[in-house]
Amino acid sequence: MDHCNEYDQNCIFCEIVQRKTDTEILQSDEELCCFRDLVPGAKHHYLVVPNTHIVSCLSLRKEHVPLVKKMMEVGKAVLLKHNFTDLRDIRLGFHVPPFYSVPHLHLHVLAPASEMDSRSLRNYGPQSFRFLTAEKLLKKLKSQKDQPSKP
Prior knowledge:
By secondary structure, this protein is an alpha+beta fold. It has four helices and eight strands; from the N terminus they run βαββββαββαβα. A hairpin with a 3-residue loop joins β2 and β3 (32-36). The longest helix is centred in the middle third of the chain and has 17 residues, at 65-81. It is globular and about 40 Å long.
């Protein structure tokens, strides 16, 4: 399977984006969709997913930096919309394969980070080998060499 397709009929997140489930959509546009995590790791735990099927954060390249930034912006906007205003007390990031439950790129938006329990910290904490913060992913992507143009 390609790392990036428009839609994967076997992917629950693609089904949510296509409105084929009863999942409450908190925010969406032509590029992204945001909804609540079914197994929250914090009082506020949202997922921001691209409408296009991208397998994981390891599928991303330097040209995806604007996408990751927009995912972060949407996550913060949804927190604000739900009356969480201390954006210094949040955790934004991605699970690194094979430590994800759905193979569709999704940004975890968790708050307040200061109140996360030990299970949540194991899965989403700053020292977790399973979780790559959005900032670290951006730094990694920005450091990649530009890919030569395809003819």
